[in-house]
Amino acid sequence: AHLARIDAIDEKVHAFLHVDREGALAQARAVDEKRARGEKLGPLAGVPLALKDIFTTEGVPTTVGSKILEGWIPPYDATLTKRLKDADVVILGKTNMDEFAMGSSTENSAYGPTGNPWDLTKIPGGSGGGSSAALASFEAPLAIGTDTGGSIRQPAAVTGTVGVKPTYGAVSRYGMVAFSSSLDQGGPCARTVLDAALLHEVIAGHDPLDSTSIDAPVPPVVEAARNGDVKGMRVGVVKQFRGEGYQAGVLQRFDESVELLKELGAEVVEVDCPSFDLALAAYYLIAPSECSSNLARFDGLRYGRRAGDDGTRSAEDVTALTREAGFGPEVKRRVMLGTYALSSGYYDAYYGSAQKVRTLITRDFEKAFEQVDVMVSPTTPTTAFAIGERADDPMAMYLADLCTIPTNLAGNAAMSLPCGLAPEDGLPVGLQIIAPAMKDDRLYKVGAAVE
Ligand code: GLN
């Protein structure tokens, strides 16, 4: 049924870069056979899922939304892919994304934009716009995203779906193409809080193949999602996340959510996080710096596409020509920015300062979480903007992640879930819930209560 739905509408939505029809049907048949044999089935047996094209899939193309990996067929599965298969999930295919997960609209994909199913002229968020659009258009009931600065939560917000960035280190990065390794985190996307929790439990957990993977039990997220409750909880409203640049309808729906939390028995206070105002600036030094190092491996010699190799050119020239042809403008911009910020003479002024700001942000969180159990804010300052509207204005694009980035810098957990439609444009608004590291279950407890 989901493949038929994809056939019917994906030409318009363009959520998928690759539909793995054969693979999906084979996985589904394998589940049926297991069932017929009376074997124990995985926890998500037979449930279809849309996988962001940043995770390697053995024998199935993985492009990261980039021309530089066009035609590359990975010889191995990411740990996350393997876990999905072990849970008997049916992987429908690979979803569209901003190239190397750099963007907030999916317009930076080398393979063309994805439409927001609520209004195809609007962006579905980014970088994981393909995954969120697949959910919102009922092409898949579950999806996977990655969140370096908001790429799970912002797409969830603008498509009226649920997205969770787990605590940093909760979900293995092995086989997840690296953008900014100290920020990157895979996570679950779904249409309900409980669905997200069921997927969360399948993909989280220690992996010896990822040196930053947390070696501790996964928080009880499914139990929390089944027992939504905020009675007696202390909820902090982030003072910094409103004011200029926030759409009236977004703030209206957010304020209603805060009222609902009070009605349900939560104690609401304001929390002050002054360093959050610097988060965007710090992020746009740290993320490009790490990306300039991570993307050095795309040299035209090891993976995917190679340009200009006519037998007369040096390896260096082939690498330069491959990158020129293979990387899009946003990727080039970030590699240049990051290389500059890391160069001797500028390192302390830029990268060093950004790391200090990162520490201040972490302290703001620590202080706030001494007073409250969770924090809340709008997920994004505005609802979905029009395709093309911010494409030529990187600074305007970066603002889409204003409220989501602090969590990535500090490494704690956050969720976005729908909280109604903005009256002025009828588009979905996202409520962000933020929890301390390794307290991911609180997101689900609160999320399920207000859903
Ligand atoms: N929009 C942010 C960026 O462009 C975040 C991307 C992400 O989370 N992958 O870097």
Contiguous uncertain segments of 5+ residues: none
Report Rg: 21 Å
Largest sheet, if any? Answer: 11 strands, mixed
- Associated small molecules: glutamine
The chain-level structural class is: alpha/beta
What is the CA-CA span between the terminal residues? 27 Å
What is the annotated CATH architecture?
Alpha-Beta Complex
CATH superfamily: Amidase signature (AS) domain
Structure overview:
This protein has helices at residues 2-13, 21-36, 79-86, 129-136, 153-159, 193-203, 221-226, 248-263, 279-294, 315-326, 329-342, 348-371, 394-398, 405-410, 440-450, and strands spanning 16-19, 48-52, 90-95, 142-146, 162-165, 186-190, 234-238, 267-271, 374-378, 413-421, 428-435. With 451 residues, the chain is an alpha/beta fold. It has one domain: Amidase signature (AS) domain (Amidase signature (AS) enzymes). Strands 1-3-2-4-6-5-10-11-9-7-8 form an 11-stranded mixed sheet, with helices on both faces. Helix 9 (279-294) packs across helix 11 (329-342) and helix 9 (279-294) crosses helix 12. Glutamine is lined by residues 101-104, 127, 147-151, 179, 287, 401.
